[in-house]
Amino acid sequence: MIQRLLVVSLSILLTLEPVGAQSGGSAPSQMPTVSPAPFEGWKRIGNPYEPRDVTPASFENTPRIHQLIRAGNLYLSLSDAIALAIENNLDIELERFAIPLAATETLRAKGGGLPRGILFTLATPPPGVGGPLTPLITAPATQSTPGTAVSANALELGVLAEAQENLSLTGTIPYSNGSQIPAYDPVFTASYNWLHQDVPQPETFQALNDVLAGHIQTGNAAYQQGFSPGTQVSLAFNNTQQNLTSLENTYNPYIASNLALMVTQPLLRGFGREVNRRFIRIGANEEKMTSLLFRQQLIETVYGVVRLYTDLVALTEDVKVKEETLAFAQKLFDDTKSQVDEGTLAPLELTRARAQVSGSRQDLINARGLVDEEEAIFKNVLTKRGNEDAEVRSAHIIPTDPLVVPAEDQVKPLDELLADAYKQRPDLGQAGLQIENSQLSLKGSVNALRPELDVVAVAQNNALAGSQNLLAATIANSQYLGGFGTVLDQLATRKNPTYEIGLQLTLPLRNRVAQADAVRDELQVRQTQVRERQLRNQVQLEVEDAVIALRRARASYDAAVETRKLQEESLNDEQIRFSEGVSTSFFVIQYQSYLAQAKSAEVAAQSAYLKARAALERAVGSILDTNRLSFDAAVNGRM
């Protein structure tokens, strides 16, 4: 009954329509499903012995990505990019399978089995090639002032260790199993045996022809089940039929049967519902943890998509800057050539102008190459098949959302941000559940220290029936004459009962194995608590650092805007001087390079600010709400 209810609940859970999902009635859910067990007809009998059908893994992209491709271009907004990642990203797909996998933990524990464990490893999307002025980009070919890179998160600042991908607090060494759990699933056993036997006898009065020949049949059946207080119950029905050439047996052939009920109740080790149901509670907590781990993977993926998209927009804008720079350099070259032809400028100025054109063209080639690299990485995050899809591979991504920096920041005080992080971050939630599970496991280890003291009670009815042995000297009792019906009547009316009750004591005199397990498990619980404290401290540092990075990014952006304006004025003034013949192309080229670098620096500062804001949302755990994402829709992959 328990198994049936669990399978029904699991089936309903895995087939529910997601709240807030815009499915349009056609897009199927991507949540892996387990087929429910049949509850009617002959198939119901075979329920426990048949595997369930599990949804196969799908490696086809959702239609959304092809719907966004027009005229060979993939027109992509940030919301579309996030939706594509949630529908197609394989890291998220792995975590989808983890949710029904955890449900099997609870099912296994309800049958009396031990949990097999779940994985706490999450994946972070690749960082991409970065935006303009990142360390991955070589110095520009044209002369320019050095740019300033702005870190957008704690890892770039170097104040945090490498991002934690494995969120397990318990380590790689498992806890001991503790006291034994009863087998909750009932078991029915049956056996039948037929035997023919000839045994020579030393005395002639024991058997006919000095050989004891016999046909013996045994047919037994038993039912066993355990219960949460630790109680073990077994009911056995045993039957033996013998037909012997014996001169001594009063009954031949005869049937001997008994019906026995045995109850064993632990009083020390293995006693109590709390101890014996600990793995069921652990399994239920693991189901909650996989949902939290999915949410954490969702946060990591959305954050990675925001970074990749922001960098792609920045790189695309930087290409425009490089194109403008090349156009200006080409115009300067044309103007300089005209003046050299007229004899108003020295030929050296033409060489300088030509070098500027060549360098600007090289910068443009580099910028376009970085866009192509970023696109290839981005497509791999947004699709299940990477660039294996020819249409996707050939499509050029056109980001449709510009880089927009708000006029002013609206950031809560640090204390409020930390309070929000403690409440919203799923990694902290699942860490608390891990500690609870480790404490539940410790209860079993402590309980295993106790001696075994069991009460054993047996109630048995015995029965005998047969025919008068004509070779025997004694006369059979008439109440035992008959067949199997007589046996059943005796068992039902308890003609020959047997009752037994007793205590069984197993007392380890040193108990070092159980002591070592209990101490080790308690030490591991303490380690888990320390790791949880480390995680909380890291959350504090991430939030505080994200606020600092956001302030730096804002200041850098304001400075970059001011620098770009000043460089535009400087270049404009120098162009006027050049046209009046009081300056040379060298200074115009120099100021033009300064302006190009200032524009790239402004784009980089915009990108750094938006990534810093996303890093703060990730650190607080609000990035899903900021992007208006439904968790249920994300689980089902129907955005």
CATH architecture of the largest domain: Up-down Bundle
What is the strand tally? 9
The H-and-E topology, N to C, reads as HHEEHHHEEEEHHHHEHHEHEHHHH
Helix content: 40-55%
Note the total helix count: 16
Say what the CATH topology of the largest domain is: Outer membrane efflux proteins (OEP)
User: Regarding quaternary structure, how should these chains be classified?
Assistant: single chain
> How many strands, what sense, and barrel or not for the largest sheet?
6 strands, antiparallel
Q: Could you walk me through the main structural features you see in this protein, from its secondary elements to its overall organization?
A:
By secondary structure, this protein is of the alpha+beta class. The chain has two domains: 2-178 and 276-443 and 521-636, Outer membrane efflux proteins (OEP) (Up-down Bundle), CATH 1.20.1600.10; 187-226 and 231-269 and 452-507. Helix content is 50%, strand content 15%. It is built from 16 helices and nine strands. The strands form two sheets. It has a six-stranded antiparallel beta sheet. α13 packs antiparallel against α14 (585-620). It is elongated, with a radius of gyration of 40 Å. The relative contact order is 0.16. Residues 1-26, 135-141 and 143-164 have low confidence and may be disordered.
Features:
639 residues; disordered N terminus; Outer membrane efflux proteins (OEP)
Task: Tell me the layout of helices and strands.
Blueprint: H1 2-15, H2 64-67, E1 69-70, E2 73-76, H3 78-88, H4 90-110, H5 154-157, E3 187-200, E4 211-226, E5 232-244, E6 251-266, H6 273-276, H7 278-342, H8 347-382, H9 390-394, E7 396-399, H10 414-424, H11 426-447, E8 452-468, H12 484-492, E9 496-506, H13 512-579, H14 585-620, H15 623-626, H16 631-636
Parallel strand pairs: 2-7
Antiparallel strand pairs: 1-2, 3-4, 4-5, 5-6, 6-8, 8-9
